[in-house]
Write the structure tokens for this entry.
Amino acid sequence: MSLVTPDFGLLVWMTLIFAIVLFILAKFGFPAITSMVDKRAAKIEKALKDAEQAEKQLSSLSERQAELLEQTRAEQNRLIQQASRERERIIESAKAQAQAEADKILQNAKNEIRAEKQSALRDLSALVSSLSVQVAEKIVRHKLETDPQEQIKLIDSLIEEASRLDDSAGVQRKA
């Protein structure tokens, strides 16, 4: 028996065994294999559809993200503008308050200067009056020391003046 040229009996048995194996495979093996291949094809098809759907969702999410980003930028710009307006308002308020405070301080300073001026004028007037009285006293003393007749005239004029003042004070008291 040679492997290159088989006998007729061997060929029959090999054909019979091949037919049996082919029948068993056709009856049980091929349906299972085709069923597995069909399931695998269905899984692949489903995976492709899911991938397409995921890609659509991803592009939708990308668009939504862009919209949200634009909304966020718009909101950010609005908040920045609002903060800028608020800052300007606070600055203006602070300026107005500082100006009012400065005006108040200036008015107080003017009042103090006016009061000090009046006080200084009163002091100066009192000093001038005091000096005038002292000068007049010295002049009258000098004049009275030299002439006794002048002393009598002075006393008479003072009595007359005092009585006039007393009379005018009495008229004012009655009124």
User: Anything to note?
Assistant: The mean pLDDT is 86. The chain has one domain: 8-169. Residues 8-169 form one domain.
